[in-house]
Amino acid sequence: MELISLVPHRKADWPSIRRHCCQFMLRYAGQRTWTKEIRVLEQLKYEELQEPGTSLLGVTVRGEEGLTVVGVLFTARCGEQAVLLAVHPLYRRRRLGTALLQAQQKLHGRITCQVPLLHAAALRLCFQAGMTAIGMTRDAETSRSCLLFRWPEVPLAPGKEPQSTQVGDWLCLSPS
Fold first, then answer.
1. Which end of the chain has fewer CB atoms at under 10 Å, N or C?
2. HEC string of the chain?
3. What's the average model confidence in pLDDT over 87-106?
């Protein structure tokens, strides 16, 4: 498994990648996908994808048909505007979500997100990734109580991109 940036090099490729990422999020994040965040991704322009604090990261596996995306993390404005994370059900519980969050933190030095108290898997994910709950808030759209998570801001050199990184447990790294 490899951790990669899903940001295309060519502007013309963005509509297709955006559509596939939105479909992935809607399919594998289930009913926990927040409509506000998915709208941010659906309406995101290529130029906005280049702004600091906005990233689109993925985890891929190599299969018979080439590389397949099995996990996606989208953040806008370091999470202040949107955070969307989804992992294919066959690849859950292998710390792929944790690896994606940690790569985002290394890329931009910080991330903020709010997680509904009833979403135990997402709460566990944030704690496993090393984030700290800094307060409670209420989601304006759904009125759900949420924990607000954040990493301390760490200064990084501008333009840092995550390098292609192997992630996953030993079972994932050996083909079967």
1. C
2. CEEEECCCCCHHHHHHHHHHHHHHHHHHCHHHCCHHHHHHHHHCCHHHHCCCCCEEEEEEEEECCEEEEEEEEEEEHHHCCEEEEEECHHHCCCCHHHHHHHHHHHHHCCCEEEEECCCHHHHHHHHHCCCEEEEEEECCCCCCEEEEEECCCCCCCCCCCCCCEECCCHHHHCCC
3. 89
